[in-house]
Amino acid sequence: MPSPLQRIIELRNELNRHNHNYYVLNAPTITDKEFDEMLKELERLEAEHPEFFDPLSPTQRVGSDINKSFEQIAHIYPMLSLGNTYSVEEVDEFVSRTRAALMGEEVTIVGEMKFDGTSISLIYEDGRLVRAVTRGDGVKGDVVTENVKTIRSIPLQLQGDGWPRQFEIRGEIVLPWAEFDRLNREREFNEEPLFANPRNAASGTLKMQNSAEVARRGLDAYFYYLLSDELPFDNHYDNMMAVKSWGFKVSSVMTRLHSIDEVDKFISHWDVARKELPVATDGLVFKVNSLRQQLNLGSTAKSPRWAIAYKFQAERALTRLDFVSFEVGRTGVVTPVANLDPVLLSGTIVKRASLHNEDIIKSLDIHERDMLYVEKGGEIIPKITGVDLGRRQSGSEPVRFVTSCPACGTRLVRVEGEAAWMCPNKYGCPPQIAGRIEHFVGRRMMNIDGIGEETAALLYKAGLVNNVADLYSLTREKLMTLARFGKRSSERIIEGLEASKSVPFECVVYALSIPYVGETVAKKLARAVGDIDNLMSMSADELMSIEDIGERIANSIIEYFETPLNRRIIERLRNAGLQMSMPEDTDEGQSDLLAGKSIVISGTFSHHSRDQYKEMIERNGGKNVASISKKTDFILAGENMGPSKLEKAQKLGIPIISEDQFLSLLQPQ
Ligand code: IVH
Predict the structure, then answer these.
(1) For ligand 1, is residue 124 a contact (CB within 6 Å)?
(2) Cβ–Cβ under 8 Å, residues 154 and 16
(3) Would the N or C end of the chain have less CB density within 10 A of its end CB?
(4) Residue closest by Cα to atom 18 of ligand 1
(5) Active-site pick, 33, 40, 68, 114
């Protein structure tokens, strides 16, 4: 029988190897079930032996829901960017230029993909990941180690041998197309804004505070640059092959090229073939292979002279602007939209493209009936990028932003400090009223079965629902007066409305469409204030003492509740039976299992936040104390327990209990 420690080490090594087979080599050698069984065994052993805790164990890749802002750190070597080129000729010039600068020496060039994600710098010491830092401003970046640890293709513990004791490796964190599509489908379903492209999705995900959510997103990473005082080889390509043997994902596209002709062939091949790759790319990168030659060529302040990027031509079409429409949304913001002669772009027909705001129309200097360039590139959503001035019709006027609301005629106002124009007629402007009703019934708000966006608009148009409170005065008979509804669909709506009365208070707050109160703010507000009467009576200062509520949100809440119509709506919703307060604390989860116990919490946790553990201790009769003493009964230890605490605990012989052990302690027997 191996000792528990031997078995733990064996399982960690095996699981690391299988992660690499699956996520890097794409060639698993065991089934998912076998993998899960090994992982469970390791989790159990680690829970039984907290003394063998390792933050880089394969069990620690699931992330945690703890909120913490990122620490910033200076890069050891600044993260430079690359010079850009847009044509084969410019790349050829780069090759000739480097040769000339090297007195005509032979130069081998390495051709690679330029991955379109977000760059990352990883620091390894003694074969273990110690830190992951974003590019930031190139000089310093955010420490995102916890999030990066959830990316399964990144080795936490290196394989093979020959790595420098300390090194930095740089690469690109990407969200593969398949995961990007899945994520956007999910967001569409949840009525959340879609990501414009995988790059935004990858960088947004990497900066999330909740690493458990990051773990779900399916990020991947490709590596392309090794830095160390003791590199294994004297050239980039061999170093990359070494990196690959240590377990990193290195793109198989990477090729050594020995002549301008080979460089050109590489470009013409990948210009097309890149579309078959599983991840987004926005160009190619060419690097001088020899490190001695790299050193000779040196760098400018911004970019190395030994490398260059070749950017793929974004897919672009030219089409005529028919007219600009101005559309009013739920919040009253007026958005200009270019209505175009239909044009085929990357496989879809484009007829409309948002122009976002007045500043964009002005900076592109768009005139009526102009020929416009529409691009998709890495963007999924078409974008107007320019005007073909040569084809402008003589005498055509610049497009002017409307001065009054296209829906209700009210004079528009400009939002202070923003590029947006707004219609201030919040309670009389039809698209704003309809928008609020549509928002209210949405899945993440009151989730009213049977009423979608279209039905909400129809109910408003038909005059049955003029505000969200009217929804609860609907009857089957009233609904059946509309041609669209039969008995069955009318009943379904009434049932849906009935069911919405148990939707929690936090969703009700979000459903109200208080300007600037999005989902997260609504949740924080609801939890902090407890009920609607409190919320309605709070001063700006009181509101601003709540986490994440600033002056703008506080004023918006006050203005909302000062409006008599809104107060009437709230009263009617309350009478209809909606949840207007957070549920009372129940006895659930209470016990005296920890009665009289003094407990210290240390480290970071994966299943619950530190505050939640504190609450659990108190609910079960225990006392959470800040520092270790002889009187401490045990320490609830998460990841990265402070070394001084650990030493003190060991000296006093105080038991250390892992998160899982603690949770099972509280399980009813
Ligand atoms: S090398 C000093 N290689 O492009 C040279 N960069 O515009 C370091 N990128 O910040 C960069 N694929 O995020 C290199 N194969 C590749 C790349 C690549 C994508 C990104 C990287 C960098 C940016 C430079």
Answers:
(1) no
(2) no
(3) C
(4) 114
(5) 114
587 part of a folded domain = no
Distance CA 147, CA 175 (A): 14
Radius of gyration of the chain (CA): 30
By the 8 A CB rule, do 662 and 614 touch?
no
Taking the model in full, what pTM does it have? 0.64
Going from the Cα of 114 to the center of ligand 1, the distance in angstroms, rounded, reads 6
Q: Is 114 a catalytic residue?
A: yes
For residue 219, the CA-to-ligand 1 centroid distance in Å is: 18
Which of 391, 420, 443 marks a domain boundary? Answer: 391
Per-residue pLDDT tens digits for 234-244: 999 999 999 99
CB 437 within 8 A of CB 459: yes
Composition of the chain by helix, strand, coil, percent to 5:
40, 20, 40
Q: Within a domain: residue 66?
A: no
Give the range of the structural domain holding residue 545, as residue numbers without chain letter.
505-576
- Dist. CA 441–CA 453, nearest whole Å: 8
Per-residue pLDDT tens for 254-312?
999 999 999 999 999 999 899 899 999 999 999 999 999 999 999 988 899 999 999 98
245, amino acid identity: S
Ligand 1 in reach of 4 Cβ (< 6 A): no
The rounded distance, in Å, linking the Cα atoms of 419 and 363 is 12
CA-nearest of 515, 573, 577 to 329 is 515
